[in-house]
Amino acid sequence: MKTRLTLAALALAIAPVAAGAQTVLRYADYGGNRGIRAEFVTKFLDEVEARSEGRIKIERHWAQALLPAKEILDGIKNGVTSLGTVTAGYTPEDMFVYRVGDLPISNPNEIAGSLALYELATTHEAMQQEFDEQGVVYLLNYSVGPIQMVCSGEPMEHVEDFAGRKVRATADYGEIYGKFGAIHVPLSLPQAYQALDTGLIDCSQAYGYVIESYKLHEVADSLTVIDGATIQSNAMFMSRRDFDAMDPKDQEMIIALGKQYTEDLAKAMRARNQEVIAQLGGEGFDGKVLKVATFTDEDRAKLDEAGQSFIDDYIAEGEKRGLDARALVEDYKALLAKYLAEVAG
Fold first, then answer.
1. What's the pLDDT tens digit per position in 190-233?
2. What CATH number does residue 204 fall under?
3. 20 to 30 A from 307, CA-CA: which of 101, 243, 256, 344?
4. Residue 277, Cβ density class (10 Å: 0-12 exposed, 13-18 middle, ≥19 buried)
5. Which pTM value belongs to this model?
6. Residue 128 falls inside a structural domain
7. 79: how many CB neighbours lie within 10 A of its CB?
């Protein structure tokens, strides 16, 4: 994808500015500076500045102020920004290998999923080659949590209750729910509030913290806890050029912090998602209580079966690209099982 730069972005499309002994980096995020992810990103960037002892200063550009979501990866590569939040689904060709984390593979725990993908991204040869080809350095992973459904009207008790419902979903999940009769309405998350309020959709794919952050409970009546697969391939990347220009001790520091914050954010996300789900079905938010239903293991198994064809398609496409995608998927599953056992213990 060719990046269409605004005049403001063009004015910034230069190498990081050296102010004396200080290097000024830019960070771009398509999300607003609110919610738990933004809180931890801010802490991470603050910590990088503090530990660099004045060598690094980071300008923060939130809510697509510098670059829209689909152009952040290109912006990192071409020097518009030094760091940025990248969602693989927005650049599926450039981040094909990394998208293994978005496949409909059952993953009920944010911590296990985030640590599994982080380990894969920092050890798997094909994934590291992909990052090198894109000219980026992988710093930390964001875990949003298992997919849930916030709905107007009654909650869905079983997968068969998708039938006839107008559902906002992302990645392959709209088609997966469509196998059970759902009507997929392709909308972005920021459009979900109005769509639920006006009846354009009946349900929206969401996560606990997202329901709170976007106030979706205000226009919903129920929550269905699916706890199946998730959208996992979200990360902060840094320009390889800018990374290589850093002092070696700062390189080591930022990589170590990325690993630490991957785990810290996942733990905080897990806790907050669970708190929000419990509160929505308990005292509610601002007096608004939702009716909550939870899918059974049998329902989740049906979703896994419906999603297998998308995993098979990914493997077939990977093989066309010369990638041993079957082994990649199995490696990810093995790491996920490893970390699920650890968090369960």
1. 789 999 999 999 999 999 988 988 899 999 999 999 998 888 99
2. 3.40.190.170
3. 344
4. buried
5. 0.88
6. no
7. 16
